[in-house]
């Protein structure tokens, strides 16, 4: 599916506690990501994308299209539930939709990329099943997201830091509740080492990045 933004028919059927959050902060989201990652968020994307073969790629949870500079050589289709985010994106092919119910035929993509999205999903299991469905056999998915460090003491320190820093930034940009949600979302999922272990896609590699290892990357293969 290509062209301008369109609405997926099942949008209303998949409510989530993040709805509206990213509409509110669309204009400042990319800048804040750069600040919080000390300018490393694009390098983290590039490391994961470098492990994908060129072809037709689904940027799942594409948002404002921040990944586009790292996606040279790919035929990119951007999907996001927030039309306000896609409206800012420079990506040409845009679709409004949810990862849990992708509006594409089976085997539509050679690769899937998703950054800083999975902790905001209603269902990781459903989304992984959908990714496996739209990937061609042998295709790969690269996922980058945030969580807590594996060490429990570092996790507590990181939790304390995000509890202070994120709402403070939210207050400064006029979106305290939205950034409070982002803090809480870091505790939503089990560690990635468990999250992807028994899914429909085989884990090819998984690595940690960032301060204390609070960022992870994982490559999944559709066999």
Give a description of the structure.
- It is a single chain.
- With 223 residues, the protein is of the alpha/beta class.
- The protein has a domain at 11-16 and 37-148 and 188-221: Rossmann fold.
- Helix content is 32%, strand content 22%.
- It is built from eight helices and seven strands, in the order αααββαββαβαααββ.
- The protein has helices at 21-24, 29-36, 41-49, 83-86, 124-134, 152-172, 176-185, 192-195, and strands at residues 56-60, 75-80, 93-96, 109-115, 135-146, 202-209, 215-221.
- The protein has a seven-stranded mixed sheet.
- Helix 6 (152-172) packs antiparallel against helix 7 (176-185).
- The longest helix is centred in the C-terminal third of the chain and has 21 residues, at 152-172.
- The model is unreliable at 1-19 (pLDDT under 50).
Summed up, what is this model?
It contains eight helices and seven strands; from the N terminus they run αααββαββαβαααββ. It has helices at residues 21-24, 29-36, 41-49, 83-86, 124-134, 152-172, 176-185, 192-195, and strands at residues 56-60, 75-80, 93-96, 109-115, 135-146, 202-209, 215-221. It has a seven-stranded mixed beta sheet.
Q: Note the quaternary state here.
A: single chain
Number of helices: 8
SSE-based structural type? alpha/beta
CATH superfamily (homologous) name of the domain at 11-16 and 37-148 and 188-221: Vaccinia Virus protein VP39
Q: Tell me the series of helices and strands, N- to C-terminal.
A: HHHEEHEEHEHHHEE
Known CATH architecture of the domain at 11-16 and 37-148 and 188-221: 3-Layer(aba) Sandwich
Tell me the fraction of residues in β-strands, as a range: 15-25%
| Distance from first to last alpha carbon | 24 Å
Top-tier CATH class of the domain at 11-16 and 37-148 and 188-221:
Alpha Beta
- The best one-word shape is globular
Radius of gyration: 16 Å
What is the mean pLDDT? 80
């Amino acid at each position: 599916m290509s062209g301008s933004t369109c609405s997926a028919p099942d949008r209303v059927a998949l409510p989530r506690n993040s709805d509206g959050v990213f509409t509110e902060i669309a204009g400042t989201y990319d800048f804040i990501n750069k600040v919080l990652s000390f300018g490393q968020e694009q390098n983290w994307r590039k490391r994961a994308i470098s492990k994908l073969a060129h072809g037709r790629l689904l940027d799942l949870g594409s948002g404002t299209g921040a990944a586009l500079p790292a996606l040279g050589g790919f035929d990119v289709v951007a999907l996001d539930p927030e039309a306000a985010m896609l409206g800012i994106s420079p990506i040409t092919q845009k679709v409004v939709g949810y990862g849990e119910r992708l509006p594409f035929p089976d085997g539509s993509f050679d690769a899937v990329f998703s950054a800083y999205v999975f902790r905001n999903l209603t269902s990781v299991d459903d989304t992984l099943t959908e990714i496996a469905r739209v990937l061609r056999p042998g295709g790969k998915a690269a996922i980058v997201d945030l969580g807590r460090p594996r060490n429990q003491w570092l996790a507590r320190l990181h939790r304390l830091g995000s509890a202070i820093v994120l709402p403070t930034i939210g207050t400064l940009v006029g979106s305290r509740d939205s950034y409070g949600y982002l803090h809480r979302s870091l505790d939503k999922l089990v560690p990635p080492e468990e999250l992807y272990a028994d899914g429909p896609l085989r884990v090819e590699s998984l690595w940690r990045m960032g301060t204390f290892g609070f960022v992870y990357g994982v490559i999944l293969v559709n066999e």
